[in-house]
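Minutes, methods subgroup
Present: GH (chair), OT, SY

1. OT presented the first of two proteins processed in the latest run. Sequence and structure tokens recorded below as shown on screen.
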Amino acid sequence: IAEALTAQTAEPPLELSSNMYRGSVVAGGVTMRVDENVVVIEGMTEGLGARMGQAIQDAALDNERVKNFTACGYTAAFPAVYMEHTPRRYTNVFGAITMHGSNEDVQTTLWFDNKGYHAIPVIVNLWNNARLRLLGFRQARVQAWSHPLPKTQARLQEELSGRGQAMTDMLVAVTVILAMGFIPASFVVYVVHEKATSGKHQQLLSGVSPVLYWFNCYAWDMVNFLVPLLLCFAIFLVFQVGAYSGSNSGAVFLLLLTYGACMSPLMYCLEPLFSVPSTAYVTLIVTNIFTGTVSVMAVAVLEFYQHEVPDLVPTLNVLKVLCPWFLPNYSLGRGLMDIAVNHYKNFAFEEFGACIHPGGVCFKDPLAWDVSGHYISKMLVMA
């Protein structure tokens, strides 16, 4: 967020025209969409009023839709006239121009829908262009532009952080470590139980090869791991967690899958240390949670203070090299954090045009090597 604040650029100006509202959903109903941009209600069919209606049509751009509606003799307000004479509700437009009175004294009223931020300048600009046509300047046109003021630091930081969602996404990564730490630890319970009851010994004596025994254990544990993996992945998708869904969902799924693939063999390697299944289960749960959270938080804290305390940089670099090779829990948590950070850096470019990736890169794929790719690759090697 701090990098985005320093790299912010001015937002480009926006040309205002009535076609900017076409196809938008009008508040109050799902099916009510803006079809005609502007409705012109004429209270007379000849004279200045008729010429004004035609001038408004001529002033409209090619992709603007202006609908003329003749209601002779009516001087009522626009909503009443339009709703009375058309089956379509007046909320299908964002603005209107009504004309009534005599040919010598044409009374014109500009109507607008206040749900459109730029409705007033758009409808006034259309009216001014129509007046230019009446005055004989048929080749002249007034263009209306909106030049947004620079956003304040507080407003920009609020938008970049998703109103606190960025910190929540960081905590989600730590929470996933806590949840996933239980699953691989459960895989070793049955292996220790078979060793304690001599079940494994009997299978080996009956002709089952050690390779087949461990392969069957691994295959069954991976099938069991897919169930919580899919549930966790579905939660991200259902609740539309921006940092872990959408374009980031593929990286998140591969990260969870490779985590299960490498944690199962790692738990098997610790089987000789235990003879009681419950002891093995509790010990490995605590080990997974402790190593995962402590390593992730330690690296995060060192990164936060590395500029203030340069002496911490060598320790930080050593941890970044060693932890992914020895702690799959670190790779899972840190990988999710890096995906979230990459998501907000991409968001800064898409929304504000700020390129804050290292090297001046504006957009980076979540599966890139320096985002989640190296964590996935290292866990595959460990598996």
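2. SY then presented the second protein from the same run.
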Amino acid sequence: MSAEPTIDEFIQMAHLFHYDITSSDIVTFWNEFAPGNNRLIARTERTHKNSQLKLDCREIIQVTKLKSSFFSMEELSQTIFSIALIVSSSLTRYRAACEGEWEAALRNLLLNQNTKEEIFNHFARMSVDKLHQSDAHILSNLAFAYASIGFKPSLEDGQDFLELVAMKALEIKSDFNAQDISMMLHAYVSTSNTKLLKGPPAMEPRFHRFLADHVVALADEFQPQVLCTTVWAFAKLGIDHTELFKRVTDHISVIVVDTLVRFTPQDLSRITRACATSQYHHPELFTRVAQAAIHLKDEFNAQHATELLWAYATMGIEEQIFVSFAPIVVALLDTATIRHISTIAWSYAVECRRA
């Protein structure tokens, strides 16, 4: 059997339930099918009737589940990661990657809520017994995959799967590199998952230190977006880690004026909002962020402009930013919410009183 079966070959094996289909075949299939990797998809030219499409797709999922009991922990994490990429990708992006009838049918089946719950609950339960085989890369893949689809697995004993992953990460914390930590931060500190930082009381402080200490030590190796999101999430949750704020803000204040480093309006609003929320004073950072924000002002939306202006008003820092952003604020009024407008009005009022 080839190392990378075509879709035709895989479907035939699923139909006949050939026992020569291997774990490697299944892992490779899902890896090749995931967004951004279209070599396998491009090789299929067959067409199916709708009823047969559903049968083939369901059989592939069932064979994957059945054979997963023979997977190593690495194979499990790779398969979970690949399927999560399919589920989490936007429909527009994914359709562009796989325009075939069969591929669309499998994608739609995976996006079905019942199917998603079935397969990701199954994989979580399979993973629990093998977590002891995990290295840092495997754990970061698992956390990233489940967080990216916003799915909390239902384990038979009521345990929280992502908490189990976090606890295992603490056991091998010295093995994590910047890439692994970036994925863990996405899983546990992203906008939609900040609540995941709130783990068991005995674990929570240690897990916070684990994430923050790695960011402090490896700040030069992280993308600006990761750094800005991390301090913003810590500030939002009221987690006190002065060394983290000092290391990140010092680093950002240096690179934010570097034209070779790309910051987005969201990055700039998050780093200043984090400082304002935590009342962490760093005048040099605010001065340089103001320069970068003015340069990017036409790219700001109402949300990011509101957060940025609120941060400067809250910290009492006088910058040209209020004058420079006035035309932008006027242009954004049509898309601004009542909260945006009231917050912007408050920010300018504070600035006017100060002046």
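Chair's summary of item 2: Confidence is low (pLDDT under 50) at residues 38-53, 94-99, 191-197.
Next meeting: continue with the remaining queue.
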